[in-house]
User: Which sequence fits this backbone?
């Protein structure tokens, strides 16, 4: 059957007319979806006649991409045939006797030095991207304002000159809280940062001191990108103070265009405030670099392992500063699957494929370079974005999106080039709906994959560790899954039921399935000879109501350590027995996403027997 003019136009611009879902079924894309994405791509659809075929389903196979990457990502010689392990943590959730209610870069450095003593080679953290400091309730690290700059809330303010200590009672309350209160922490830290900047301005700015020269060198190195970002932050601060929004969608019309006359006038009138936001970024970048240097100095061979979100908030700095590089008329998401019947809408704006197809890859290049600034490894969230993204046009339901292709070979070359320049290892999170041939393309480019124990199954059994991929990072779970202790007790099932994400009639079924999963894990550990006689005896009596025994936590990590994976990571939450999950996808206020703190402080971690025992397992 001949293709319609609309279909031909859509294909020309990389829009997939159909795609294969998680069940292997072909989903035919609505014409309205094609038109919506074409509009987002700034392609005129006026006069294009629609042919409205019925929405069909059928079996199909997708064509594998033909990729011959020109370069490979960096891999240190010692790791080509060797292995390394490390610990992942949520930076905001670190407690300490000195932070101001949220984990900071000084806590990160101390954690790195501690874990180095246990033999760890890296510390992984959540994305550290700039969020909306003028709207503290927008705190998801995976929905940033900018991926090129850092979140100033992670600055260790007590390490800055001239900062007065806040009220001791208030500070103790913030440190002792179970959850991070971003609004309160911001109110606590902002005046201190203002105070520290005033001191810097008086003592150093324009006076030719070492500090002044270092700041000016940082400004020169980042040039226009830093100036525009700081301008956005100053405008955001200005409009929020007047009752407007922190994101540019809610700004006066004259401020929505970053090159308008009104914005140019604001830049001149508020030069010092813009300089303040540049100083914040310089300060944050210096403290992050210091944490990485301390990790390496303590003996880690990789150091910090940073995370790069897949997109940005549509109304944030990146879309305002470089509107031609970002697509704002469509949102990143995921199609329906067995776990999400309506699909997922992540509410993120992607990089636009339009300039990339004409060879303009500097948008991705700038983001990758920024992520590799002070790290030994970088994780690409939803790495399949290098080949395609599931996009949902404005005004459409989540399930009515489709995939849009990106120039995979060119983008792999960008990643490989940046990786070699920065001497940084690249890990691609290749979970979910992975297109045929993508993992082969990753391997050809030297990008390591991601293997999650809870997902690695052979039928009803957990896959033996010897079957794991060599070119991958292995871990028990991710930030979107429960902790090992929480998984064991089915806490995530209970939480989803409590907030109406799980129907009443499926609650018992899910708990029964989880009991089967825990038995399958025990059987997998036993097949590997990792259970003692006491463990086997105890497992016959234990139930989900009981806490997971420490011996099973240790055996599970020993299981992972037996895999041939080049990299293995443990979650810090699992090493201290935390049961509360980091994030439940599809929720906002219903669950304390991105707010939970560790149950103990960094200073007490060395006293946790479970942590020491797991670490001893990982280095064997």
Assistant:
């Amino acid at each position: 059957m001949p293709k319609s003019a609309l279909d031909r136009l859509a294909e020309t611009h990389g829009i997939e007319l159909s795609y294969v879902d998680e069940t292997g079924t072909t989903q035919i894309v609505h014409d309205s979806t094609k038109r919506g994405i074409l509009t987002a791509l700034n392609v005129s659809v006026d006069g294009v006649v629609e042919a409205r075929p019925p929405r069909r389903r059928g079996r199909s196979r997708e064509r594998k991409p033909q990729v011959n990457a020109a370069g490979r990502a960096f891999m240190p010689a010692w790791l080509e045939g060797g292995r390394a392990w490390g610990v992942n943590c949520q930076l905001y959730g670190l407690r300490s006797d000195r932070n101001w209610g949220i984990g900071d870069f000084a806590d990160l450095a101390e954690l790195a030095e501690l874990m180095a003593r246990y033999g760890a080679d890296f510390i992984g953290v959540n994305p550290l991207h700039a969020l909306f400091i003028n709207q503290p309730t927008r705190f998801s690290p995976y929905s940033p304002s900018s991926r090129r700059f850092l979140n100033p809330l992670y600055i260790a303010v007590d390490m800055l000159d001239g900062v007065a200590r806040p009220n001791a009672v208030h500070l103790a309350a913030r440190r002792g809280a179970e959850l991070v209160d971003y609004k309160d922490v911001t109110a606590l830290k902002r005046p201190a940062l203002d105070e520290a900047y005033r001191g810097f301005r008086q003592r150093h700015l324009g006076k030719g001191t070492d500090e002044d020269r270092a700041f000016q060198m940082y400004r020169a190195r980042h040039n226009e990108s830093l100036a525009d970002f700081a301008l956005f932050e100053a405008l955001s601060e200005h409009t929020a103070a007047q009752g407007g929004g922190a994101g540019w969608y809610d700004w006066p019309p004259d401020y929505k265009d970053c090159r308008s006359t009104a914005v140019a006038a604001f830049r001149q009138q508020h030069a010092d405030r813009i300089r303040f936001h540049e100083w914040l970024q310089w300060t944050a970048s210096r403290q992050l670099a210091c944490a990485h240097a301390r990790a390496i100095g303590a003996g880690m061979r990789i150091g910090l392992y940073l995370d790069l979100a897949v997109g940005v908030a549509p109304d944030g700095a990146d879309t305002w500063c470089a509107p031609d590089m970002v697509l704002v008329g469509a949102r990143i998401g995921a199609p329906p699957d067995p776990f999400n019947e309506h699909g997922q809408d992540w509410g993120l704006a992607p990089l636009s494929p339009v300039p990339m197809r004409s060879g303009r890859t500097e948008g991705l290049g700038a983001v990758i370079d920024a992520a590799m600034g002070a790290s030994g490894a970088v994780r690409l969230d939803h790495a399949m974005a290098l080949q395609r993204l599931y996009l949902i046009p404005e005004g459409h339901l989540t399930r009515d999106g489709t995939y849009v292709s990106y120039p995979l070979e060119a983008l792999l070359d960008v990643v490989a080039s940046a990786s070699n320049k920065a001497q940084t290892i690249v890990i691609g999170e290749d979970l979910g709906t992975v297109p045929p041939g993508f993992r082969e393309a990753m391997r050809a480019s030297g990008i390591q994959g991601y293997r999650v124990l809870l997902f690695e199954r052979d039928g009803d059994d957990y896959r033996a560790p010897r079957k794991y991929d060599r070119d991958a990072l292995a871990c028990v779970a991710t930030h979107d899954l429960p902790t090992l202790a929480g998984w064991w007790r089915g806490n995530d099932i209970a939480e989803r039921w409590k907030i109406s994400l799980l129907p009443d009639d499926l609650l018992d079924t899910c708990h029964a399935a989880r009991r089967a999963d825990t038995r399958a894990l025990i059987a997998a550990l036993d097949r590997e000879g990792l259970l003692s006689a006491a463990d086997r005896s105890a497992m016959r009596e234990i139930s989900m109501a009981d806490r997971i025994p420490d011996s099973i936590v240790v055996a599970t990590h020993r299981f992972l350590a037996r895999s041939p994976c080049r990299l293995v990571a443990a979650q810090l939450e699992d090493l201290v027995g935390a049961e509360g999950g980091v994030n439940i996808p599809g929720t906002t206020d219903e669950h304390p996403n991105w707010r939970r703190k560790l149950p103990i402080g960094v200073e007490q971690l060395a006293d946790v027997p479970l942590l020491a025992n797991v670490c001893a397992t990982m280095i064997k």
